[in-house]
Design a protein that fits this description.
- With about 400 residues, the chain is an alpha/beta fold.
- It has two domains: about 150 residues, 3-Layer(aba) Sandwich (Rossmann fold); about 220 residues, Leucine Aminopeptidase, subunit E, domain 1 (3-Layer(aba) Sandwich), CATH 3.40.220.10.
- The protein has twelve helices and 17 strands.
- Strands 6, 7, 8, 11, 12, 13, 14, 15, 16 and 17 form a ten-stranded mixed beta sheet that branches. A five-stranded parallel beta sheet has the order 2-1-3-4-5, sandwiched between helices.
- Helix 10 runs parallel beside helix 11 and helix 11 packs across helix 12.
- The longest helix has 19 residues.
- It is elongated and about 75 Å long.
- It starts with 19 loop residues before the first strand and ends with a strand.
- The N terminus is likely disordered.
């Protein structure tokens, strides 16, 4: 459910009122809860979905944030796995010394007339009324939905469809980000001397139209396995457009992925934040790219897909260090482009990611006064991402615009 701006709680909302609250046992069904969160946030906007581990920020009053958001929600999704009932019989969590928040959230929802939808995971069964505490016995009478790995796409689709039908305002889709149509560069300089003349820039729109960066940074998982050609991701785009293709567009040489496999060798999985340099393949001709630096920005979680690595700023530091090594070795590289690492399939939030990436770039320039780089670019693909960049940049007084008028990124 959306985390509304709460006095004292500190949660935030990207517009509207709380809608969907995800209730789950962290020790049992955290993976499916994270999957639901990611898919619903992608469809309805991250502010429409509340999941405690994502939506409550450090320093927030946990109890107040939970209860206030819960009471404002329209729907509670109770994620129930095969061991759900046994885990909660004591009325406490599995460590035995904390309140059972799953029980308390469901009871609160039923008390306030909030629709509760059980979501049965795999082969879990609905608990009976006699097996439930009195204050949540009504849960047994609620019609359920199911998520099963053999039919996961259809099952997720049904959850989305049912929520859209039950809460019509979700269907307005006002929060979905849209691609920025025009590709522009907005440059900023670092205030304070002495320091490098390197600029920090934001490039808008799709990466396919960018021709002003010598190095592209590619967000990869810790196994360094590039996305499929058909995936809508930066990794998939780099892999396909960097490949050798015939006149029909069929790949005849997987140039960048093959080079990455050779560079990594037997070291998989690599450490979070690790960086590997490859050539740019066919991107050298289409986009004037000289090198691709692959960074381990996401890592897998069993049953939950991928998540952004901790300390995502380390990926920026690693990539910039590799870029400087290339320049010091005599390679003609002066500009580098970063996408928003870990915000795609890994589902990381845009605002903290933008802040971490920009601050890491500033820190690197503070510590590396000899850098050969002339510009560090970040990609703002959507209008939402651009708005977040503008907000974060306003909060960084050391970065001031070089030229208030944007200029084309293909120049």
């Amino acid at each position: 459910m959306a985390a509304q701006s709460l006095s004292g709680a500190g949660a935030w909302n990207d517009g509207g009122v709380p809608t969907v609250f995800i209730n789950y046992r962290a020790q049992e069904q955290a993976g499916y809860a994270a999957l639901l969160d990611r898919e619903l946030a992608e469809r309805f906007g991250p502010g429409a979905v509340f999941r405690a581990s994502r939506s409550i920020r450090p320093g927030d009053d946990f109890v107040r944030a939970i209860l206030e958001n819960l009471r404002l929600c329209r729907v509670l999704l109770a994620v129930i796995g095969p061991e759900w009932l046994a885990s909660g019989r004591s009325g406490h969590d599995q460590q035995g010394d904390e309140p059972d928040w799953v029980h308390r959230e469901i009871a609160e929802a039923l008390t306030h007339g909030i629709r509760v939808i059980p979501v049965l995971v795999e082969d879990a069964r609905m608990p009976s009324e006699v097996d439930l505490p009195t204050d949540i016995a009504a849960l047994a009478r609620c019609q359920y939905l199911r998520l099963h790995h053999r039919n996961i796409d259809n099952d997720i689709g049904r959850v989305v469809d049912e929520l859209g039908r039950l809460v019509p305002e979700l269907r307005t889709d006002r929060r979905r980000p849209r691609e920025v149509a025009e590709t522009e560069v907005r440059l900023f300089r670092l205030v304070g001397e002495p320091g490098p003349a390197c600029r920090i820039g934001v490039i808008t729109g799709t990466i396919r139209r960018v021709r002003c960066a010598d190095i592209w940074v590619n967000s990869e998982n810790t196994d360094m396995e590039m996305s499929r050609f058909t995936d809508f991701s930066v990794s998939g785009i780099i892999r396909y457009w960097g490949a050798r293709r015939d006149q029909a567009g069929r790949v005849t040489g997987d140039l960048i992925a093959d080079a990455l496999r050779a560079a990594v060798g037997e070291r998989r999985p690599v450490a979070p934040g690790a960086a590997f340099v490859t050539g740019a393949g066919s991107l050298a001709d289409s986009n004037d790219v000289r090198y691709v630096i692959h960074v381990a920005a996401v890592q897998g979680e069993p049953g939950a897909g991928f998540r952004q690595v901790r300390e995502i700023g380390r990926c920026v530091t690693s990539a910039l260090a590799e870029a400087d090594r290339l320049a010091q070795a005599g390679q003609p590289v002066r500009t580098i482009l970063f996408p928003l690492l870990g915000t795609g399939s890994a589902g990381a939030e845009v605002r903290p990611t933008v802040s971490a990436l920009l601050r890491s770039a500033v820190d690197y320039l503070d510590l590396t006064t000899h850098t050969a780089l002339e510009a560090i670019y970040f990609l703002a693909y959507s209008d939402l991402e651009l708005a977040v960049f503008e907000e974060v940049l306003r909060a960084l007084p050391r970065l001031v615009p070089v030229d208030p008028s944007p200029r084309p990124a293909e120049a």
